[in-house]
Amino acid sequence: MNELLVQRTGAVLALTLNRPERLNAVTTDLVLGMVAAIEDASRDSTIRVVTLTGAGRAFCVGADIGPDTVGTAEVPPDAAIIDAVNRLALTIQAVPQLVIALVNGPAVGVGSSFALGADLAFASDNSYLMTGFSAIGLIPDGGGTAYLVASLGRSRALASAVLGDRIDAKQALEAGLFARVWPHAQFTEESDKLVRQLAAGPSRAYAAAKQAINGVALPNLAAVLETERRLQRELLATADFAEGVAAFVSKRPAKFQGR
């Protein structure tokens, strides 16, 4: 099965994470496939919008660290997948096209970073965001710390990282994390309509606005990604991470040691 579907319709390139049986949990190869597709799009001036969504009932529930039922789970995650998601974050920021997340369901862990790292996020009302990293003894990565601070401010960003609260679609819209939210039954029709509208719009102006706003809101994204990488690699080596994953797999409360 092709785990990344790439479809061109007019000026829109649609990327679909296609692991519905794993709620679109990602592997290194899958993330690198996303990077390659977006980089290819950046060299094609006839592509004006790139969209990212998930097959089935989820957008993306993060890196695949669950029980390995399909032979591709990466337990534990290593530097390779961190490097891949960091490259994706920088690629989305760098390309001239608008990259739009179509959040059709849960966006958890690095899946929430994908949604927040897109230039715009359109969502179904049955979707939600949740960092979820603290449940396994980690921190938001893939640019998640930068996106949370840029969107929520320091205090609410830290609360999201530490408490891991679920942010439903309505709350995310009110907080400015989602640009649009529609009822689930209307989500595909309404989001497609707005994507086509943007694809027909002034793409040079959109690219300029993206560059200018990112220059203010995310001027140090590359440095933040390096900090996340360093800290995450340290945390991956801890007993708390091992316990967090074991508890997650066993569906029991974790007993963290704090060291």
Question: What is shown here, in short?
Answer:
By secondary structure, this protein is an alpha/beta fold. It has helices at residues 28-42, 79-94, 110-117, 144-152, 154-163, 169-174, 184-199, 203-217, 221-236, 239-250; strands at 4-9, 12-17, 49-54, 98-103, 106-108, 120-124, 128-130, 167-168, 180-182. Helix 1 packs parallel to helix 2 and helix 2 (79-94) packs antiparallel against helix 9.
Structural overview:
The chain is α/β, with parallel strands linked by helices and 259 residues long. The protein has a domain at 4-183: 2-enoyl-CoA Hydratase, Chain A, domain 1, CATH 3.90.226.10. Helix content is 47%, strand content 15%. It contains ten helices and nine strands. The protein has helices at residues 28-42, 79-94, 110-117, 144-152, 154-163, 169-174, 184-199, 203-217, 221-236, 239-250; strands spanning 4-9, 12-17, 49-54, 98-103, 106-108, 120-124, 128-130, 167-168, 180-182. The strands form two sheets. A six-stranded mixed β-sheet has the order 1-2-3-4-6-9, with helices on both faces. α2 (79-94) links the parallel β3 and β4. α1 (28-42) runs parallel beside α2 (79-94) and α4 (144-152) packs across α5 (154-163). It is globular. The N and C termini lie far apart (41 Å). The model is unreliable at 68-73 (pLDDT under 50).
Give keywords.
2-enoyl-CoA Hydratase, Chain A, domain 1; three-stranded mixed beta sheet; 9 strands; alpha/beta; 259 residues
The poorly predicted ranges are 68-73
Instruction: Count the DSSP helices.
Output: 10
Main beta sheet? 6 strands, mixed
Helix content: 40-55%
Task: Please give the order of strands in the largest beta sheet.
Answer: 1-2-3-4-6-9
What name goes with the CATH superfamily of the domain at 4-183?
A: 2-enoyl-CoA Hydratase, Chain A, domain 1
- What is the global morphology? globular
Q: Quickly give the structural class.
A: alpha/beta
What portion of the residues fall into strands of 2 or more residues?
15-25%
Radius of gyration: 17 Å
